[in-house]
Amino acid sequence: MQYRDFATIYDRLMDDFDYPAWAEHYLKLIQRMGGTARRVGECGCGTGSLSVELAKRGVQLVSGDISEDMLRLAGEKARKNGLMIPFVRQDMRHLSFHRPMDAIIAGCDAVNYLLSVADLDAFFEAAFRNLKAGGVLAFDISSPYKLMDLTGDGFFGEEREEITYLWQNRADREKRLITMDLSFFVRQSGDLYRKFRETHVQRAHTQGEILEALKRAGFSGAGVYGDFGFEPPGEKALRLHFAARKE
């Protein structure tokens, strides 16, 4: 199971991540497509760091994730910040909100965890159904260049005072799948560490197949941007942001 024990240390390993800038970028993406962000459905919310930043900016959110452990931490984080954010366990391929949303977002690789074109179609169709007319779907992916060429079959590791991890990637370039085997060692007390492992699989979706899937779902005028700017992505962009509108 993904993001179980890992959920408890996720924020400590993401301590250099600029969530305020990420929130601002998503709001600009939605605005760029002519949408509004009064009511937003969030997919793959994780521990709720992006959710909290959006809520601080006046966005009314319903945030979901498939991991109960991540959702529990997200709820705690929202309460500590004095925010009322509904967090629900939900598979992004089967989204269901009580009323149509102004926008739906899926940040930080959530779409990479959809492992086939059929999964892409299911998510985009569900998002389309749950958006109001004029609503915007915005999301990002780690690029094929990053997953297949840059990290590929790489081995990574980091030793911190309280946490050490080892990370081995295995790339299937024919299927464009990357399997990430992670081993964590978390200090409990003194020289005692707790070890646990997780395996994550992501797909390196191409820009073309995503745009075709968005079109099949009924979206129009999709934009694709490289990293955190608003220019078309270069060949070595690490992250691709997409935004599309429901007319």
Strand content: 25-35%
* Largest sheet geometry: 7 strands, mixed
Strand order of the largest sheet: 3-2-1-4-5-11-10
Global mean pLDDT: 97
The rounded distance between the terminal residues' Cα atoms is 38 Å
pLDDT < 50 runs, ≥5 residues: none
User: Rg from C-alpha positions?
Assistant: 18 Å
H/E series: HHEHEHEEHEHEEEEHEE
Q: What is the overall silhouette?
A: globular
Strand tally, please?
11
Tally of contiguous helical segments: 7
Helix content: 25-40%
Structural classification: alpha/beta
What does this structure look like?
- There is one protein chain.
- The protein is an alpha/beta fold.
- 31% of the residues lie in helices and 35% in strands.
- It has 7 helices and 11 strands.
- The strands form 2 sheets. It has a 7-stranded mixed beta sheet with strand order 3-2-1-4-5-11-10, sandwiched between helices. It has a 4-stranded antiparallel beta sheet with strand order 6-7-8-9.
- Strand 8 and strand 9 form a beta hairpin.
- Helix 2 (19-32) crosses helix 3 and helix 5 crosses helix 7 (207-217).
- The chain starts with a helix and ends with a strand.
